[in-house]
Amino acid sequence: MKISIGIVDDQTLFLESLITLINNLTDMEVVLYASDGKDLLRKLRRQDSHPDILLIDVLMPDMSGADVVIAVKEAYPDIRLAALSVLNDSFSVLKMIRAGCCAYLPKTMNTLELKLALTEIWKKGYYNSHLIKVENTEETLSPILLTEREMEFLELACSDLNYHEIAKRMFLSIKTIDGYRASLFNKFNVKSRTGLVLEAIKRNIVKVIS
In the chain, N or C terminus with fewer CB closer than 10 Å? Predict the structure, then answer.
């Protein structure tokens, strides 16, 4: 049984190239594609079956990627959603995660990583090796002990606040905030703020609400 993939992207050349690439991967098939959010929603309503995974571009006309994610997640909760973009700044990533994406895939990723990403999303529900290691192992899922202040920092890290704003909110110096950040990166075995958020969501430590 092939993993069924849907793609929405307004860049025609990229869309056509990605369709060809995925269809050439073993056990994967593009069953739906659209040029924007409205086109996608129309096609989803007309189909009896829906893709296992939907890749959604962040920047599109009419409806933003986040708006598309929210609409699809509400109407079709079983579809696993992944952001696809050239953007890699943390706020763009966090916006898509808060909307309901389980992964953030850069358009610059190579074929092998794309195949791994789609397989992991289908099997485990989360993927982002660009940001975190998502492996269903005892070590990865072992309990993480957080202090009250670390938990407060983690919850604020899931917001749109930058680190200076988080420092003000917690009445701490930016140096202290940097210390919390480094400590949590180490505890969660991640390399970025976005990776920290994804790992915390995967472990059900925090719930990110749009």
Answer: N
